[in-house]
Amino acid sequence: MSDTKYTHAIQILEDNCTGCTACVRVCPTEAIRVRDRKATIDPNRCIDCGNCVTVCQFHAIIPSSDPLDIIHNFKYKVAIVSSSYFGQFTEDISYSVAKQAIKELGFDEVAEEAMVTEFMIGIIRDYIRANREKRPILSSNCPAVVRLIQVKYPALLPNLFHQEAPMSILTRYLREKISAREKLADNEIGIFLIVPCVAHVTAVHQPEGAYKHLQDGAFSIGMIYGKVREIIKKLQNNPVEIDTYPQGLTWALSGVQAELVDSDDIRALSVNGVENVMDILSRVEDHYLDQYDYIVLRSCTNGCVGGCLNVENPFVAMSRIKKMIKEGESQDINVDDLEVLYEQGEFAVAPLTPRPIMELDKDIKNAIKKMKRINEFLTMLPGLNCSACGSPTCYALAEDIVLGKASIDDCVVLLKRHSKEGED
Amino acid sequence: MQACEAAKYNMADYWNIVPGMENALKECFSRAAEAEVTLEFVIPEKDFNNAGKGSSEVKNLLKRLGVDSEVLRRIAVASYEAEINVAAHSIGGKMTSLIYDDMIHIKFEDSGPGIGDIAQAMVPGYSTADDLVREFGFGAGLGLPNIQRNSDALHISSEAGEPTLVEFLIFFA
Questions:
Q1: Tens digits of pLDDT across chain B (173 residues)
Q2: Residue B172: its chain A contacts at CB < 8 A?
Q3: A183, A206, B71, B97: which sits with the fewest CB atoms below 10 Å from its CB?
Q4: Does one domain contain both A244 and A312?
Q5: What's this model's pTM, rounded to 2 decimal places?
Q6: Residue A12 lies inside a defined structural domain of this protein
Q7: A379/A235 same-domain check
Q8: CA atoms of A257 and A57, how far apart (whole Å)
Q9: Residue A122, SS3?
Q10: Where in the sequence is the domain holding A224, given as residue range(s)?
């Protein structure tokens, strides 16, 4: 049943897991079960949203990101930094110092997601205008949202923005440019992402859709944060001049990105937080939101600043980034080369395939049979949705029983009631 | 053996059938069948925070059965509109979904106060919604027309001062 076709950047450390079921309850796709007092994740259902990583108090669910040492396998090392990184520091630390610190980790060059924000806004608008019949177009840069659509809302796959995400576009562009400039072969250039969430780490190791250009690794902001802080202390005394792109930092903020795309002929909506995203997708499915041309969907609170591998609170990080945008000077970025690649169709992505998890059976008659049995078990269960059995709800337990993955004896409440009856 | 509940009524008189669907209905009604799965949902008066939950539950259930997404959308729209109608215009009621292996039959029964002129209520844009209802963004007068447009067979019975029954059938293929 569980063919592990999909890899994930989330690991469960069995020794630390107490079987508390906190993760079971926060998983939006009901991918986690506790069996024999240990949590397990169904790789077919997991969308890498990171909710379980955030909620686990026992460090039993940890994000796997690559060790920083792997950059030394390459002659020329490039870091591409997620915009949310710049919201992680106190206000005495400047944008340029924070950026320089990444370089000091051992990279030859640091590029930023923010460099291509304006270019992205342009191609998003192009795409919306060329695909009016598919409205609303759904943003595809949050890998967790894309997976969510694949597993729970496959009917909406054609509505996704079918062009690459900024970090993927940058990878494509930089690889070519650097290889020409430094006279290096492809495999001598290492391109790495500094990312705010597990979904991005997974996207690097299992590129799909908007993330088709392979990077050589991904490091979480949380993992490098300690080192970066040390470097920053030294740098603050002798700051170095380095290019920054404050106007592009908007990419990290879900609401601001929507405002930028919004124009006279394009109405945009911004949605963040995975529960809100699911509610909106369900309504898009029923065509209740056709008045929008574009919907920015981000799985985390406030967008990428809410990623579970960040260190700062998403609201504080958002406020800091907004301050940087306001105070920073706008810079002209030459995107001619990108325009050429775009015209050639280099950034277009192939349609994604559905990964449906909802169907009980391929045959509707069998599915109905299973549904009837689920309902029979459901009437026996107490309806408390306590998760003590290890399934998220009574309904999920009934389904697990029918699918042969659990037994009615797993219900703790029933067990207690029966033992009381036995005493009477 | 009990016949399909929708078949109990004299077909042509009772159901407002979308042209072309007559045979499908006839065939369906001739089979002896009880609903495979039944789902009930209470709809309280003016409870807009929860209105829509019944239809979303039905949609999730049908997703599990693997019902085609376009059919699913029609069912979701028709049931959502009908559910909102009960919440907005009646003093409360209930929604009963009868699921067969080739179609769904959804009934909305409320406790009044009834529709004075059904023909007028079917006209797109006509609405008797009060200010509270409009404040919540409903009351555009598209409820019944939307239900009709998305269902294969529809029946409405009501009179001023009486309870209202709205029921419709939608086939899966």
A1: 456 777 766 677 788 888 888 888 888 777 757 888 888 999 998 888 888 889 988 998 999 998 988 899 899 989 999 998 899 888 999 999 999 988 999 999 999 798 888 888 888 878 877 787 777 767 777 788 889 999 999 999 988 889 999 999 999 98
A2: 364
A3: A183
A4: yes
A5: 0.87
A6: yes
A7: no
A8: 33
A9: helix
A10: 68-133+162-255+306-343
Structure ipTM over 0.90, yes or no:
no
Chain B residues with beta carbon closer than 8 angstroms to that of A359: 63-66
What domains can you pick out in chain B, each with its CATH number?
Answer: 5-171 (3.30.565.10)
Does one domain contain both A17 and A107? Answer: no
CB B117 within 8 A of CB B130: no
Q: Do A359 and B65 touch (CB under 8 A)?
A: yes
**CATH code: domain of residue A388:** 1.10.15.40
Same domain, A200 and A104: yes
Q: Flag if A285 and B73 touch (Cβ within 8 Å).
A: yes
Residue type, A186: D
Token pair of B98, please? 């009868």
Which token pair is A423? 């005493």
Contact yes or no for B36/B103 (Cβ under 8 A): no
End-to-end CA distance of chain A: 43
Residues A319 and A417 placed together within one structural domain of the fold: no
Domain presence at residue A293:
no
